[in-house]
Amino acid sequence: FYFKNGCPPPNELKERCLFAIDQYFYGHLGLQIHEFKAVTKDICKLPSFFSTALFRKIDINDSGIVTRDQFVNYWIGGNLLTMDLATRVYTVLKKLHCRYLTQGDFEPILHKLLACHPGLEFLRSTPEFQERYGTGHLTLRELKCGNLISAMQHVDEEEDINKVL
After folding, report:
1. Contacts by 59-62 with C-beta closer than 8 Å and gap 24+?
2. Under 8 Å CB-to-CB from 156, ≥6 apart: which residues?
3. Within this chain, do residues 17 and 71 fall inside the same structural domain, yes or no?
4. Helices and strands, counts by H and E, the chain
5. Going by fewer Cβ within 10 Å, which terminus of the chain is more open, N or C?
6. Does the record bear DNA-binding in its keywords (predicted)?
7. CA angle at residue 70 from 67 to 75, to 5 degrees?
8. What is the Cβ-side half-sphere exposure of residue 58, based on CA atoms within 13 angstroms?
């Protein structure tokens, strides 16, 4: 059979993920953007500075809330649970019908990273640096071949930015 987003996850993996999701959403009608960081790191295994981009990707009606069902539909229904990390990053960042990432796709995570990483505090007041993120586009293949993903994961855990790059 052909599955557009790859084979569905094994039932055991899906059940473990649903259990973890239930822990975060229990007692809440939904989560707000400031509550989404732990879901991004613990369930999605993405760096914390992806939380805003992921939240906005799921909250398509711009309601300010992501419900459990919306999250499950996006994460498990979209089969992101079984995708490799580079494909998950690519899927979360890219525009819906685009086959590559653009400079603009990276802006939300870079702004979040600049705002919250202690090692980058000195750049917050330097707009000329913030405009120089690069140009062009990045395909999934190029994303997988480079070390950008591992650097993003490392920077989420390391306060000294010089140890990362």
Report:
1. none
2. 41, 47, 48, 49
3. yes
4. 9, 2
5. N
6. no
7. 120
8. 29
How many folded domains does the chain comprise? 2
DSSP designation for 89: H
Look up the domain containing 137 and give its range.
96-163
Q: Which residue has the tokens 């979209």?
A: 78
Q: What is the pTM of this model?
A: 0.77
Together in a domain, 32 and 85: yes
Tell me: do 16 and 85 sit in the same domain.
yes
Check: CB of residue 15 under 8 Å from CB of residue 5: no
Q: How far apart are the first and last CA of the chain?
A: 43
Question: What six digits make up the tokens of 47?
Answer: 């760096």
> Which three-class secondary structure state does DSSP give residue 100?
coil
Strand stretches in the chain, DSSP E: 101-102, 137-138
SS3 137: strand
